[in-house]
Amino acid sequence: MNPALTIATLVVRHQVHPQHEQRYETWLHQTIEAASQFPGHLGVDVGRERHGDALQFTSVLRFDEMQHLQDWLASSARQWLVSQAQGWLQDGDNTEVRLGKDFWFAPRPAEQAPPRWKQVVISFLVILPLSLLVPALWQPVFGVAPWLAGYLMSNLLITLSIVVLVVYLFMPLATRMLDPWLTADPA
Asked: Among 14, 24, 78, 158, whose CB has the most other CB atoms within 10 angstroms?
């Protein structure tokens, strides 16, 4: 069996009251240390995201197999640690267990993706101006470095530029700006 498929993953989401963020950070370090002592522990990644006043912590713990993850979840050490943090959390201890690595690509259950037609509209609005502007911006470079102006190389550079700009700059900006429209209830 593929080892990547047997990895058990625990995703823990905590929304922390603003006045308890520092305490929670200390608690989180203690919890990570405690989890690392359990058999099969492979590591932890922690993400922090602000939601209004609250800071959401998303911790991703990986274990080599489901039984080791279940041992951590059921442990008295984890139960005690979670009980210490309950008063700091806005919506309790939210956990999700997955086998394999599919959680990286699956949306959270509470989130709905925007309708496909809205995704098409926003993609068109972001990509069209770039597909008109980026080739013009590369033209001076192609004039100075003719070896870059060949069909394959110029298309590679232009396409790479557009993709990088879309993924890292313009699409995140556009989705933030148009979020009310993207997530509006169609009813």
From this structure: 14
